[in-house]
Structures are given as structure tokens and as C-alpha cells.
């Protein structure tokens, strides 16, 4: 087993989406996890840019940050788990969490990799729980006000 074979096997086998883009934001690697998450096959995604999964209203912000990161080699998200909305091929909204790593060659940034996990169901459950909690707190405040 070579290191290259191991790396390839890990990327192929992982259930998370693994996406690699070059410095211009063109998708260069799209694993089976990405296909399951976003609905695009590797043949459809490779050579495209990330607009295929970024909600339209967030694209300018994304690309401003992406190009700044490529130019400076700095990202404030290097060791953070990011939570953002994304778009599936069929148009429905996804909630995803991901980490990024800058890819360097000969001392310059040549791309970025992201490992993503869909958390839509968990986000919806958290939203519902927060709404229920707010309702209980409001009712409690009413009861406390009535008792005074």
C-alpha cells in the first residue's frame, strides 16, 4: 500500500462529502459522499465552480472570501467547523457543516479542500426545540405575572 493509494481509498470510502477546488474555485475532486449529499455526479461537478451548491444570495460573500483567501493564504476558518446553508441539485436547501484546509504547492496556495457533513435534520430539530423553549418561557412569564 502506497501513501497515494491510501489517500485515494480514504477519500473514496468516506461517507462525508470531500470536495477540492483549485485557486480559481473550479471543482477538481468530488467524491461519492458529495454526490450523495448534493445530487451531482462527479462527471457533472468536476470543472464547475461551487455555485452549483452555494445559495445564490450567498455567492458574492463566498467568492469575496474565497479570492481573498487564495490571494493572502489566510483563512479565519482553518481550525473551525463552519455551518452554512447549501443547495441540492433539485433545489432544496441543506444545512451543512464543514472544515477546510488550504492546499499548498511550492509555498503558494493552489486550492482548498473541504470535508462536509449534512446536518439538516439536526438543525431542524434544534430550531423546533428553541421554538418550544421560547413558548414555555413565555407561558412561565405569564404565570409569574399573574401570580404577582
UniProtKB/TrEMBL annotation:
UniProt-listed NCBIfam families: sensory_box
Protein name: Histidine kinase
Gene3D superfamilies attached to this UniProt entry: PAS domain
PAC domain sequence ranges: 80-131
Residue span(s) of domain PAS: 10-56
Alphabetical keyword list: Kinase, Transferase
CDD domains: PAS
One Pfam family cited in the UniProt record for this chain: PAS_4
Gene Ontology terms for molecular function: kinase activity
Organism field: Mycobacterium sherrisii
Amino acid at each position: 500500500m502506497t501513501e497515494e493509494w491510501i489517500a485515494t481509498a480514504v477519500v473514496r470510502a468516506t461517507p462525508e462529502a470531500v470536495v477540492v477546488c483549485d485557486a480559481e474555485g473550479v471543482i477538481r475532486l468530488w467524491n461519492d459522499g458529495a454526490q450523495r449529499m448534493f445530487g451531482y455526479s462527479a462527471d457533472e461537478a468536476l470543472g464547475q465552480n461551487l455555485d452549483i451548491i452555494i445559495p445564490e444570495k450567498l455567492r458574492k460573500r463566498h467568492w469575496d472570501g474565497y479570492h481573498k483567501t487564495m490571494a493572502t493564504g489566510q483563512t479565519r476558518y482553518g481550525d473551525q467547523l463552519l455551518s452554512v446553508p447549501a443547495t441540492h441539485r433539485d433545489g432544496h436547501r441543506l444545512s451543512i457543516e464543514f472544515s477546510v484546509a488550504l492546499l499548498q504547492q511550492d509555498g503558494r496556495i493552489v486550492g482548498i479542500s473541504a470535508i462536509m457533513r449534512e446536518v439538516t435534520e439536526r438543525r431542524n430539530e434544534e430550531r423546533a426545540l428553541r421554538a418550544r423553549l421560547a413558548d414555555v418561557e413565555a407561558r412561565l412569564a405569564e404565570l409569574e405575572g399573574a401570580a404577582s
